[in-house]
Amino acid sequence: MALMQKRQNLVLAIAVLASFVAFLDGSVINVALPAISRELGGGISTQQWVVDAYLITLGSLILVAGSLSDVYGRIVILRLGLIGFGVSSLLCAIAPTGEILIIARAVQGISGALLVPSSLAIILSNFSGAAQAKAIGQWTGFTSAAFILGPLLGGVFVDLASWRYVFAINVVPIAVTLYLLALLKQKDERDKGTSIDYLGAVLGVFGVGLPVFALIEQEHFGWGNPIILGSMVLGILALAAFIWREKVARQPMVPLGLFAVRNFGWGNIATTFIYAAFALGGFLLAVFLQQVAGYPATLAGLATLPVTVLSILLSSRVGALAGKYGPRLFMTVGPLVAAGGFFLFMFASAEADYWTQILPGVLLFGLGLTITVAPLTSAILGSIDARQAGIGSAINNAVSRVAGLIAIAFVGVIVGSKLEVGGFQHGSAVTAVLLVLGGVTSWIGIRNGAKPAPVTFDASSTAAAPQG
Question: pLDDT for 221-254, tens place per residue?
Fold first, then answer.
């Protein structure tokens, strides 16, 4: 029994550390963007690409990563993801130009897509029953800590050393995780009945990546440029082909039948608006505080700490209340409260006094986010059969990532080529509108007490078909 407990603790440590670096890089980068731009140039376009290059590959490939784990083995894919993330992090740290940094960030995204599903998979294969639920809760809690440490670590590194350490530090937890994997000596598991939809993966990458490229670079070349127009058209065609592919593939990455389940379909629409707002608002606030208001990077990171503190203190309570009363009211009220925070940011001046112009908006945003997130996840995953919770979670994760990268791609359209007070106020208004749309969508589409939809499986497809 003691040996089993020791082994499970080792598995949990590996899963937490492997996911930690991916989550950390998602939260640490915004505070480092102004310093990166000052050293490597490129203005707001470079800042957008440093964020979106990571999100494009991560969001596009996270769905296929689960299939890769089944076919080649969870440990193999996890180890490959760790090595890839470590190497690409070092490339980011020594990047001499913005272009090389952006390429390295894209490779980081590919590696990150391998880490999160594989780390969860080894928890599922080593824990069962109540122990599994507890392990997943611990995994969630520890990885959430990355969102606390990210802005703080990023700010400290930028102010006291260099933004390059933001990436170089990843090597330490990765090396520890690889060492623990060697100690684990776990036999890999492979599913011979699983195939990989390579064509769907390629179409997904181009369907997401090309329109994002057009949105970011149109500021420099204009919509009439053949490269910009061609990228947008080809991207839309690739996205349409991706949807067609998912309808006919034997083992699709995205079982489209899930979207016929009411709370799953409407919940993901709400996710699109809400997470687009989170990404856009977080990006604009971090850059504005440093480039316009003159905050040091460390203080810019500390400025949003109340959001995470509120989330940690209240998330479990909100989740319990949503379980008792249903998610609809929480998913409606939460985004509206968060929208109130960004409405307050519209009155920020160039000095941006923290106590009067920033903190009230941060508190409202943090409260709204906390009211929203747990009920949103519960509504989406609770509406489908437990057998499809894994793919349902992956789809919702991908939707939130893609929504975020598209929102960042629109930054140039929203604020222009340089972020100033007027642009920040305009961006805050757009963020507030997106959050309101998320709340309204939830009120219209989400239903309380929805039972998980029973599913049937076609002999030639793994896609689920809801009944009734």
Answer: 888 899 999 999 999 999 999 999 989 988 887 8
What is d(CA 343, CA 320) in angstroms, rounded to the nearest whole number? 29
Residue 128 vs residue 396, higher pLDDT: 396
Burial 339-358 (b: 16+ CB within 10 A, else e): bbbbbbbeebeeebeeeebb
Angle between helices 421-445 and 328-345 (to 10 degrees): 170
Q: Which residues have a Cβ under 8 Å from the Cβ of 461 and sit 6 or more positions away? A: 249, 250, 251, 252
On the 0-12 / 13-18 / 19+ scale of CB atoms within 10 A, 414 is middle
Cα–Cα distance between 166 and 28 in angstroms, integer? 7
Report how far residue 1's alpha carbon sits from residue 3's, in angstroms, rounded to the nearest whole number: 5
Task: Write the pLDDT tens digit of every residue in 420-431.
Answer: 899 999 999 999
Determine the 3-state secondary structure of 234 from DSSP.
helix
For 51-94, the pLDDT digits (tens) are: 888 888 887 787 787 678 777 887 888 899 999 999 999 999 99
User: How far apart, in whole angstroms, are the C-alpha atoms of residue 236 and residue 251?
Assistant: 23
- From the DSSP assignment, how many helices (H) and strands (E) are in the chain? 17, 2
Tell me the pTM.
0.80
Q: How far is CA 101 from the centre of its chain?
A: 20
Is there a contact between 75 and 186 (Cβ–Cβ < 8 Å)?
yes
